[in-house]
Fold this protein.
Amino acid sequence: MFPRILIVLAVLFLCGTPALAAEATGDPILVGGLFAQSGPAAFVGTPSRLVAEMTVNKINAAGGILGRPLKLIIHDTESNPDVALRLARQLVEAENVLAIIGPTSTGEGLAVKKYTEEKKVPTIMTVGGDPVIAGGNFGPFTWTFKTPQRTSTAVEKIYDHLKAKGVTSLAVMTAKDAFGQDGLNHLKNLAGKYGMEIMAEETFDPKGTDFSAQAFKLATASPKAVIIWTIGPAGAIAAKNFAALPGNKPLVVECHGQPGPEFLQLAGPAAEGVIMPATKLMAPDSLPAADPQAAVVKAFIADYDKEGIQAKFPLNTHSGYAYDALILLQAGLQKAGKADPAALRDALESLTGVVGVSGVFTITPEDHNGLTTDSMVMLEVKDGAYAVAK
Amino acid sequence: MTLAITKGARNALVFFAILATVGFFLPDYRLLVVNQHLFLALNVLALNFCLGLGGQISLAQGGMAGIGAYASVIAHSHFPQASVIVVPVVVLAAFGFAAAVSRPMERLGEGFLAMATLGVSLIFTNVVLTMGEVTGGSAGLMVDSRLYVPGLGELSGDRTFFFLFLSVMACGCWMFAALKDSRPGRALLACKDDPLAASSCGIDRAALRSLSFGLGGAVSAMAGVLHAHYGGFINPEQFSLELSLKALLFLVIGGPGNLVRPLAAVMILETVMSGMQFLGEARTLAHGLLLTAALLAGYWRSIRPIPMLTIAARSVAPGRKPM
């Protein structure tokens, strides 16, 4: 029986050694792309990947960056933080990328961040949640940037709008996940500043199929408006539950994760009158010609259509994040003048006025997102379509 | 009898030798995957104490691992270099907690026991979510502290943790084998076969099962401690019910009561499954088919033993009950 162990060991010796040698850094600038192309976040991750490929092709067709072509090495994170971390390490340690674009969900972002910060890899995330660039308990964010608006920016946009309409009594209904909790924290923290009174709050499981109980409880506090904070179908279900309530119904406000065709389809007639903050991507026709984003947004939508992505994944508020991440990367590299991680990071941190699809980015050492409430519009659902809320 | 013991020990040796060799030669970033699988394997081993020895179906493994992880991280944030004291205290506390919880649960019938352990996992998640001030809620906690051993310094790096996981697993395996061949172990197996007959022979079922359940809890908690300080980030999802269910699945595939086979099943099947990345959305289907095939293979072998396949670990006293 002993020789068998020896044979096994010998076999392992022969074939178990790693065959991955470091790739020679030739002409292309290597960038890693982490997108959740399967699992629960795939509805954002898969179109993001297509947009990223489209953008890279466009950049390369226009002569690349610093005279070198950009090469994106893409992996599927399966919406799983463990897998995201594995792939991030593979990108950095075996594939020698200069920077990383992605991942898609906040949980994945936090799992990857610890590592990229330690290894000093510039990472431009496309995650919704703020913790990745919040500092404090969530660690430093020296090398981490993100393109979607901060939760606090969306909350401020909502409060601005409600205040202008004279609505000050609120109820909030937030998902039990990281995204919902993040929303709840900011809704509570900023309420005082805008003179909002939160009369009642409830949480719900975003995988649930009915939230009538929560809706009823919140309605009994008779708030003027109710803010629902979740991504995915749960938002539409909640809107339906509120629409089914008897008597006076509060104004339903959804978060900035909802705008897209799915919400309209799922909520149906219940969507009527619902308001929500969104990127300008959702209201291209309402943009005045003077808006610096107008041209970029329209060009993006045209490309999105031309590449056939629109047919598979109809445009929603998340569609532009990967584009913005690559535009920031391009601007950063051009400013840095060389493909070096530290120089790229410093350049990214001092970018001003970079026009993207989600807004005009002005990044500072304190703010690694760089978007303000000006980058968003409030939408209202009218006759089954989105219109800018007055 | 002696022959059977050497056979089991030999299988365990082969298993650990292969793993250790793999660990020596893999590059660091590949080792991360192995370590993630080892964390699951430790939980399978933990469940083996409850189900394999005591015959109690437990869905509390995820919760127990989470308790270990959170307790250790929070304790380390107050006493940064006291790992030598913190870790044993956390593991002992987990043992005590699991043993204490198991006592009243033993009074429940079989189905109820599974539900009650399910409750442990769900309660853990909800406690973490509601105590956001301390636990970071659903956003999770960044782990800044490392395990510190006087003389060795701070423990970090993939290879260090690989061997930590491996040695904890070796310890667990030794405890499992030692317990199985001891008097309480025999009594536990008797309880598993026929609880009533066992108690009528004068076996204190509640005490015995709280021992096996407690050991399971302690091993899970230890796995959680290592996982937390290794990964550097914890959130309740990592210790959700999914972990408990996965542990149960792999234990059933490998055969409860068997020492090495469930662990080998985790390492092999999980490695194969994480290699299925290229399948995209079809991956879930492929995973399902693979796991079903593994389950059927286990069942088929148990009704028609084939000499070729039975080389793998055969327990001392199979004591297997049809699931």
